[in-house]
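Workshop exercise sheet. Pairs work together: one partner reads the sequence aloud, the other fills in the structure field after running the prediction. Swap roles for the next sheet.
Pair: D.N. / O.F.
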Amino acid sequence: MKELKQILTLTLHEKRDVAIAIFFGFLAGIAGAALMASSGYLISKAALTSQITILIVMGACLKLFGLVSALSRYAERLFSHRATFTMLSNLRVSFFEKLSPLAPGIFQKYRSGDLLARIVGDVESLQNFMLRVFYPPVVLGLVFLSTIFFASFFSLAIAMVILAGMLLTIVVVPAIFAWRQRRIDSAVRTSRAALSTEATEFLFGFRDLKIYQQLERKERDLTVFSERYAEQQQKEGLEENFGQSVNAFVALLASFFVLGLGAYFVSAGELDGLYLAMLVMVSIAVFENVAPMAAFPAHFEENRKAAVRLEQVVTEPVRKPGDLALPVKPIEIAFENVSFTYPEEERPALSNISLQLPSGSKTAIVGPSGSGKSTLLQLLLNVLPADSGMISIGGEPLEKLHPEKLWRRMNVVLQENHFFFGTIRSNLLIANENATDEEMETALARVQLSAFSPDTKVNEKGENLSGGEKQRLAIARAMLRGETLWLLDEPVSSVDSITAKDIYSQLFEQGKDDTFVIISHDLTGLEQMDQIIVMEQGQIVEAGTYEEIMEKQGHFFALKQIEKSIFA
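Structure field:
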């Protein structure tokens, strides 16, 4: 039950609705039992008396109890569902507040399909906590205890039989089937997560699968996962039906015991025969209410697993963010003996990196693929934490800066830039919500996208744009940001050299006194950079101006010669 502690806490935040729902649920249960008891008493009384007044009063009581039961059941549903929906809303907010600081690092551990299954499926399944797990035992317990108290005035033995039936149907049988359900439900959730993951990959990779003629094989794999999930669901359904049957059988046996014991007491003269039908009808009525408890094990295990899977995601270690903002003064950047290794990797991505990037400088970081260039940028964005060493921006240690306050002062273009379904306007307003259409059109013209207007449609993930158009649109978005620190990771890798040169000219014209950090594998046009950093295998192997490192005829010179031989 400890796994559901947070869900219980969020549910009890709506204590008013919960308390009202329990009250009306109890009232509906008691009214239903009273209705059946009155019916039994009326039948017996009608057979033994000719007083019409008593029969009229009992008939009126039947109508009253029926009306109270119906109205109370409606009120119970209203308040219990309102509490449930509010709890779900609070749960989603709480979960995303915990999840947000973990992104984007969380994607290194969990696949997107698995995360989607947890965020949507597991959260939705917790709607049953209030209605199927927390609420039924409380209401049934109150109804049973009240019924047992009432029955004890007529026969203590019959009250004990009802008590024994209550313990069996509310505690013992559900506990046994909860234990059995735990094994089945684990397999169901594993199958659902696997199916969701494979379906997501199938949709994202559909084009490549089609090109490489692997679509049928992937479809067969997806069918296997689907059938496995359906098989596990079938087992879960059969187990739930079996539990309901056993619980109903135990409830029926308890009512038969009440009937048999009552008949014995009547024949022995220990119970007035007038009350036998009433006590039997009461037991039937209260045991009819145990149906929700038959489904309790399945819902309990489902909720417990859902809570565990959600907790697994948000209990990842979170770095405590700083609270400082980037100073307004000129922004210089310094790395001092910085090292970083990705989790579960042996080879360090960065090793003892030390460099100085003065304010207003233009620095290019070059090197072969896998040399650590993009990792260095991720550390500078404070997305990844350095294992050792110190990074400072504007004289402030990076760990003391609040990430969002830091990002607010940056113009960032990454290798993979996301574009949302909508228009060019909606995607540009992400960078500057106050930008006018004229400013957007100017930014688009600077990156040679004059053919686009702010009203041009953009499909999900920018699927209707070419690779070069995506990069130029991302640069236009950064231009609209208008800050003084530029971090550009392969910003023009999909653009031809002439267009790339023109875009760099526009960038440097707009940010004459800004600080630029540009990661690139393209070595052309670096003559205008103030500093060039050459990296290889996570280390800086050369640094200096273009003329200085060319004179050394080292790594950079060798890379230039290779480039010349390829494009000669």
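Discussion prompt: The chain has a mean pLDDT of 82. What would you look at next?
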